[in-house]
């Protein structure tokens, strides 16, 4: 056949096959040596340091390490939880309340990462179902925006000044600062800065 001439394999293919075979043989020899070392290592000093290291690793693997969940569970069990007044707002609400410098630091982080700060307020402050019982429908997801998003904000003090002004005119509202990404068109960050008096 002119398209598939019959010829012997090239020397390059033969070299590759030999290298693959040698690699398989070497791996089998290493695995056999390891099994022998594990099985007969206790009868002589050959491989004793390796055995001690392997036993130490096996002991560590069997002993369960304390988990993050257990630390949280222990702290939670010591705390009395009021189920009626246990409302949380965003991720930061699980931390102690922010002081003015903490809020400014968060806003500075927001601005330094290219996010656009926006101040919002709402008297209810939580989602609820009033107009529909359909799946994924909630009222109260969207809060009222205070003025416009602060495009071009470069200073956290300017944003905090807007928060104080919003507080002045809405003393019985929850107030939060959000950070929007104008490229992805999503809210990337948000935290509560004031609760009703």
TrEMBL record:
Subunit (UniProt): Heterohexadecamer of 8 large and 8 small subunits.
Domain Ribulose bisphosphate carboxylase small subunit: 88-196
Pfam family, one: RuBisCO_small
Keyword list, A-Z: Calvin cycle, Carbon dioxide fixation, Chloroplast, Membrane, Photorespiration, Photosynthesis, Plastid, Transmembrane, Transmembrane helix
Full protein name: Ribulose bisphosphate carboxylase small subunit domain-containing protein
Gene3D superfamilies assigned: Ribulose bisphosphate carboxylase, small subunit (3.30.190.10)
Any GO BP annotation: reductive pentose-phosphate cycle
HAMAP family according to UniProt: RuBisCO_S_bact
Species: Lotharella globosa
Membrane-spanning ranges: 18-42
InterPro entries (alphabetical): RuBisCO_ssu, RuBisCO_ssu_dom, RuBisCO_ssu_sf
């Amino acid at each position: 056949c002119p398209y598939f001439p019959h010829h012997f394999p090239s020397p390059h293919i033969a070299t590759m096959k030999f290298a693959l075979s040698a690699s398989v043989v070497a791996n089998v020899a290493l695995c056999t040596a390891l099994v022998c070392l594990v099985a007969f290592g206790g009868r002589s000093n050959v491989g004793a340091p390796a055995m001690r290291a392997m036993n130490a690793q096996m002991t560590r693997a069997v002993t369960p390490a304390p988990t993050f969940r257990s630390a949280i569970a222990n702290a939670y069990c010591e705390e009395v939880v009021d189920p009626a007044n246990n409302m949380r707002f965003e991720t930061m609400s699980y931390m102690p309340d922010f002081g003015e410098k903490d809020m400014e630091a968060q806003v500075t982080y927001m601005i330094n990462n290219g996010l656009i700060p926006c101040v919002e307020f709402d008297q209810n402050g939580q989602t609820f179902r009033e107009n529909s019982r359909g799946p994924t429908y909630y009222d109260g997801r969207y809060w009222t925006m205070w003025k416009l998003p602060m495009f071009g904000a470069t200073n956290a003090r300017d944003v905090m000044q807007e928060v104080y002004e919003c507080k002045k005119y809405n003393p019985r509202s929850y107030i939060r600062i959000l950070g929007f990404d104008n490229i992805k068109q999503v809210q990337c960050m948000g935290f509560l800065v004031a609760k009703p008096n």
